[in-house]
Amino acid sequence: MRRLRHITGQHRTASTNRLLGGMLAFNAGAINAGGFLLVSMYTSHMTGFASMLADNLVLGNMKLVLGAAGALLAFTAGAAVTAVLVNWSRHNWLRSEYALPLLVEAILLLVFGLMGATLGHQTPFAVPLTVLVLAFTMGLQNALVSKISSSQIRTTHMTGVITDLGIELGKLFYWNRTERPPESRVRANRIKLRLFATLLGMFVTGGLVGALGFKYIGFIWVVPLAIGLLALSVPPLFSDWRRTLRRKARAARLPS
User: Of the four listed, 75, 160, 211, 228, which is most buried by Cβ atoms within 10 Å?
Assistant: First the structure.
């Protein structure tokens, strides 16, 4: 339990950020690939939806405009909810300040997995409720990792990760002339290299596992993903709850 609380707690290290980032990148890859098999849309990144909105405004296809707007709003709402939960946890002196968004994400995935077949109804945004739930969930997760890592890590889209990986690889293979002083030589940041390679590898692996699971099992495949998030979020929250109860009990015993 102490280890889990450390992963989602307020005191961050490069290793815990890399561990949590890798786990959530796997999660995002699985949801993104599986969601595409179910609704033919990638919901972990919003670049395509933003382009869809602009293109179809010009073409006059309001159905696709509404769908893109719905996904963008759901993703934004998820990110906003993470900010609210994290700041509430900080103001209440919770050590597991990043666990609440993970708990919400786990609950949403459980709902999605157990009720997926009934989430195919059209919404006012002309897309299935499935799309909005997945977009909201990914916004929630992306904002969480962004806050944890001070915007240095992203887990729901790989464009920036691959770009940064390419930059560090360029530094790694750069030929430094021997006559240059050591302080002026180009050197790759191997810690960043490991981080970006881990994020990309876990996202691709998650995509493979998610695609296989959704193809052969269906909606219920997200339940193991939800259980993993519950394992990360519930123990530290339970620890904070017990600590709060002990603090209240001590306060009640003090003389008035």
Answer: 75
Give the whole-angstrom CA distance, residue 221 versus residue 215.
9
Return the sign of the alpha-carbon dihedral for residues 56, 60, 64, 68.
Answer: positive
SS3 annotation, 58-115: HHCCHHHHHHHHHHHHHHHHHHHHHHHHHHHHHHCCCCCCCHHHHHHHHHHHHHHHHH
Read off the pLDDT of residues 116-153 as tens digits, 9 standing for 90 and up. Answer: 766 667 777 767 888 888 899 999 998 888 887 766 77
Residues in a beta bridge with 9: none
Q: How far, in Å, CA of 231 to CA of 123, rounded?
A: 32
**What distance lies between CA 180 and its chain's CA centroid?**
43
Indicate the Cα dihedral angle 153, 207, 124, 48, nearest 10°: 60
Give the C-alpha distances (Å, rounded to integers) separating 197 from 46, 78, 158, 172, 237: 22, 27, 11, 14, 31
C-alpha–C-alpha distance, residues 111 and 106, integer Å: 9
Nearest CA-CA partner of 51 in 40, 64, 34? 64
The tens digit of pLDDT for each residue in 82-101 reads: 999 988 888 877 777 788 89
Name the burial class of residue 35, with classes exposed (0-12), middle (13-18) and buried (19+) by CB atoms within 10 angstroms of its CB. Answer: buried
Neighbours of 53 (CB within 10 A): 18
Reduced to 3 states (helix: H, G, I; strand: E, B; else coil), residue 202 is helix
Q: How far apart are CA 37 and CA 54, in angstroms?
A: 25
Nearest by Cα to 25 from 112, 142, 133, 123 = 142
